[in-house]
Write a structure and sequence with these properties.
- The complex is a heterodimer of chains A (113) and B (457).
- With 113 residues, chain A is of the alpha+beta class.
- Helices cover 19% and strands 30% of the residues of chain A.
- Chain A has three helices and six strands, in the order βββααββαβ.
- In chain A, the strands form two sheets. Chain A has a four-stranded antiparallel beta sheet with strand order 2-3-5-4.
- In chain A, strand 4 and strand 5 form a beta hairpin.
- The model of chain A has no long low-confidence stretch (mean pLDDT 97).
- Chain B has 457 residues and is of the alpha+beta class.
- Chain B folds into two domains: 270 residues, no CATH class; 115 residues, Alpha-Beta Plaits, CATH 3.30.70.
- Chain B has 13 helices and 19 strands.
- In chain B, strands 11-12-8-7-1-2-3-6-4-19 form a ten-stranded mixed beta sheet, sandwiched between helices.
- In chain B, strand 11 and strand 12 form a beta hairpin.
- The radius of gyration of chain B is 24 Å and the shape is globular.
- The mean pLDDT of chain B is 95.
- The chains are: A alpha+beta (113), B alpha+beta (457).
- The interface between A and B is large, with 48 and 53 residues.
Amino acid sequence: MKTPLYNLAHARSGDKGDICNIGVIARRAAYYPILVRELTAERVKSHFGELCRGRVERYELPNLDALNFVLHAALDGGALTSLRLDRQGKTYGFALLRLEVEIPEDLEFDILV
Amino acid sequence: MTARPLTVAGASGFWGDRNDALLDQVRSGPVDVVMLDYLAEVTMSILRIKKLRDPQAGYATDFVRALEPALELVVDRGIKVVTNAGGMNPVGCAEAVIAVAQRRGARHVRIGVVTGDDVFERLSELGASGSRLEHLDTGEKFSSISGRVLSANVYLGADPIAEALRRGAQIVVTGRCTDSALALGPLLAHFDWAADDWNRRAAGVVAGHVLECGAQASGGNFAGGWHVVPNLERLGYPIAVVEPNGEFVVTKHSGLGGLVTPAVIKEQLLYEIGDPRAYVTPDVVADFTSIRLEDLGGDRVRVYDVRGTPAPQELKVSITYEGGFRNAAMLTFVWPYARERALRTAELVLSRCQQLGLRIDAHRVELVGLSAAHGPIAPAPAAEPSEIVLRLAIRTPDEASARRFGHEIAPLILDGLPGVAAGPGLGGRPEPARIVDHWPALVPRDAVEPRVEILSS
């Protein structure tokens, strides 16, 4: 079965120049392996489509049950020159949490959205 | 002899943050040091524009406003205050602090000023004429911006701050330094950690990273449970109680609102980082994958086991340059066919701009309420929305084109499409904004000479 990532994880995003990073944190340690399996760099890159023109890197932080995604050329040149409403990618964490992820039928989780 | 723990409080995450957080931090419980971060890439650009208009300006004036009501308590209790509010003009900021101290009758307050970050005059010596200073993220050649450069500031580290404190400064004002140095500097001065004690330095950097964004480490902007954070109306800012071995407990004053849990701290640890195995600062390269957290309950989270490796041989320089102008207009369209009329309006404005011969390098059409923030990621709405805000933004090489674009908006009330509410952007002429863009690069560490000066009120 599938559920929006929002139910399994929370996220915070921010900017460094034209790079946006998104920290994704499992709401429970048991969800971390699901994040590792489901959230590949390729899938995140494809999810953001034209918003991210460069490569996407993924880093694992198992101590924190978290992944860090680094999206290059993702902010229309960066906050100082961008024409976007969200110049700093502050909402990109929520954009990622829209993603539908495959979970085991018997997984316990709170339906938040 | 074992030193006692050092309690470091955060009281500002950017220029624009709450000005009363400093007073809250010093009056609501015991703290040894308060750090206030004001600088972001955006802020340095704003400060540069201000200094171009007025040579006395160029620092975060909010710091002086935040300090004034807290100054008496700060002086009475011997609390150290460390800030990068100096921005593009640390000496000007320090002089404003002295003026406030004198006005408040606080005599002999020692203020440390850290300079040496400004290398604008030395850019050619640092390689601007050669093949260096290429863009840190994209690798572009510096020559593409060389005629448009406005400023260049190196990110300094914690050592000059520590030196200012050791020389008796109670308030330390810096220009560009890493945000984390605002915590590590006081820790180095207090604990005398060795210059090559990479693990403890890394722990200090992590403490600084947790505190540098103010309430983001105590329940503000918390995606993991925004609905359960108590008393956001009286949010307490974060505090790190640091032990001699570098481990620390993040907490907040118990009388104030907010939330300190592992989930809150994780969000902040991951904020604005790249490769977590190598968080590079002038002081140490910290490994964020080594960090361990323990929930102690009662808004207390222990952070321990932080590892670090030696500091890099190059420092990051933040260069700003002229990047043209931008302008944006917003118009509200109501049902029916709101989307169609909004898009037609964007088309007609851009077409008018073309007829007028305006120089437009780029434009963006966004429909707020449908897909402005996330574009194609946002699914199509199930029903036609009651209203949509059109946001039309442009970038131009010259100010005249950006200004003329602004004059094309108000006439739409009578000349354009029907069903437009006089919302934001209507009835007026949106003003152009100057773009000062940012160019990060590297310079050799030994080419940078931080300076510390102690002034007194």
